[in-house]
Hints:
Layout: H1 8-21, H2 36-40, H3 42-57, H4 60-63, H5 93-100, E1 108-110, H6 115-123, E2 127-130, E3 133-138, E4 141-147, H7 152-155, E5 163-167, E6 170-171, H8 175-181, E7 189-196, E8 199-206, E9 208-211, E10 215-220, E11 223-228, H9 240-254, E12 259-263, E13 270-271, H10 272-280, E14 288-302, E15 305-318, E16 329-334, H11 341-353, E17 357-359, E18 367-373, E19 379-388, E20 404-405, H12 409-422, H13 449-452, H14 455-462, E21 464-467
Parallel strand pairs: 11-12, 12-16, 13-21, 16-17, 17-20, 18-21
Antiparallel strand pairs: 1-19, 2-9, 3-4, 5-6, 5-7, 7-8, 10-11, 14-15, 14-19, 18-19
Amino acid sequence: MKNKSLxxxxxxxxxxxxxMWGCTENSSSATKEITDQDRESIYYQELLYNHxxxxxYYYDAHxxxxxxxxxxxxxxxxxxxxxxxxxxxxxxxxVCGMYNQMxxxxxxYYDPEFSDGIMKALTESPESVGIGAEVDVIDNALxxxxxxxxxxxxxxxxxxxxxxxxxxxxxxxxxADYEEAIQGQKLDIIKIAYIRDGESHTAVIQLDxxxxxxxxxxxxxxxxxxxxDEFTDITANEYGTYGEFHERLQKIxxxxxxxxxxxLRDNGGGTIEHCENASADLLSKGEKxxxxxxxxxxxxxxxxxxxxxxKFDTTTxxxxxxxxGKDLYVVFLANENTASCSEIMLMNITSNKASPIVGTTxxxxxxxxxxxxxxxxxxxxxxxxHIFDKNGETYHxxxxxxxxxxxxxxxxxxxxxxxxxLRTEKRTAGYxxxxxxxxxxxxxxxxxxxxxxxxxxIRRGAGSFRFKKxxx
Length: 472
């Protein structure tokens, strides 16, 4: 993701190429004097580089004539700290100011001071401190139902199905007792007594931090339910969210289950690779996944000079092999916070398998962002793609409607279980017919640095994203 190989001269040449093409009707000469010392500074070069990125990749840069073709117009214009969409210190506030003038609320910039935290939020699931396991009461016994990969419990040798009898010599009679007993600080020692295959054992576990899982498997009235919190690269599984999903799906298939509920409620999205791969696991070889119309750039000959132009490429993903869950009957749970990558998964499966949806209309974010590191070590996120289903249709701005509009979460689950048990219903609803209101007007500026740097805010802003390779 560290694509710093463009030299200062290359940046200048690329930007000049866009200046030759540019948005001439929006072009104006800079009125401020920019010295040679200014032009040699990393701050000016960062502005120049990001102007090129917006010119090349921002979907509406030229379609809506939003970007001035002259980068000097933006230099030091907004030389104050700014947290409208991204985050900048005063040194790079003009870069933030340039991004904030784009109407798209998901196109944003974070200067180098914030880049490490931003990349962590985009690529890693939340960190937790504990043993890294889930438990449930089964046949009046407290049982480990899931051991998180690479967690302290995993390395201590605990397994799913182990029956817990005591924690730190305290007899455990309920789940509440267990939760209270395992609380502690990082590096604290916890001793767990358990029974496996009729024999008693004790595990000595040191509490530690670990990346929380993003996919969970439970059973409701005999129906498997996979809940996906988000789509992330680094989780409890070395293959990220998709790796977790694939493992749990394999358990369901191995168990001989015929139907599956996938709960995407409150899942705001994430890395496109994971929701596309998870979708493919439920489809047959050759079935269409999402189609992306993506902004990029090219160099064309103009007389004796080259000029840079923005262009749009169309690519479609396909299921390359039969998915392990292709024969499962699938029911989805979704709500108004189901967005972006989650909506891509809904779109992929419902358009191919007519799988029913229970809940409320989804958010309606059918656009994608490209993220990467900038010349000076900042992070850019640029809306560079629009997303369409196998039939060339989009849910953008309108959301995906449920087949059963139910607001109560418990009743949503009960209905999904009912449908999954019968395995006969086909989807009849479609995409929304009225705007969800989430894109009706430009988002209001954020006044709080803490809010803009909040993990949930960052991930909601990213939605459906890929990490771009800007230059070789």
